[in-house]
Amino acid sequence: MAQIDRLKEIVETLRSETGCPWDRAQTHTSLKPEVIEEAAEVVSGINILERTNDAENLKEELGDLLLQVMFHSVIAEEEGIFTFEDVCQVVADKMVRRHPHVFSGVSYSSREEQHAAWEEIKKAEKAGKEWYADYLPEAFEEAQQLIEQAKARKGLGGRG
């Protein structure tokens, strides 16, 4: 069994009737603080790697962030809206689409031309969905508040 399949099975078990009450009670909304905290801990793991050449913390924190992705995907699957497989497909398709110079034999004469093509591809992907960006300012503000709360939980002087 692939480890990613094992992880999905573990999350499904945690959320099952015989699983963990805390895990079963979680929602996309209730897990927002964990997503922010785990992302910050990945940044810390990168800093530790850069400064000490010790990769153990980064490996652990990337696992914790992946757990958050899996948790949200399992919840979404329970809700009938998408699966972890769908998440993987969306990001894989996006990377192939945004890298035609790697996957489709397209060649660019300069980095600037490649960057301009990347921007055009992104623009085409977002056509009709420009309104998504309207939610970003609020999300950044919420993320900042969640960061402050995480700092307080960790005893790092947050306003919390």
From TrEMBL:
Protein name: Tetrapyrrole methylase
Assigned keywords, A-Z: Methyltransferase, Transferase
The UniProt record lists the keyword Methyltransferase: yes
Residue intervals of the NTP pyrophosphohydrolase MazG-like domain: 26-103
GO BP: dATP catabolic process; dGTP catabolic process; dTTP catabolic process; dUTP catabolic process; methylation; response to stress; TTP catabolic process; UTP catabolic process
Organism: Pseudobutyrivibrio ruminis
Record Pfam families: MazG
A molecular-function term among this protein's GO annotations: methyltransferase activity
InterPro entries membership: MazG-like_dom (IPR004518), NTP-PPase_MazG-like_N (IPR048015), NTP_PyrPHydrolase_MazG (IPR011551)
PANTHER family referenced in this protein's UniProt entry, alphabetically: NUCLEOSIDE TRIPHOSPHATE PYROPHOSPHOHYDROLASE
Keyword Ribonucleoprotein: no
Record lineage: Bacteria, Bacillati, Bacillota, Clostridia, Lachnospirales
Gene3D superfamilies: MazG-like (1.10.287.1080)
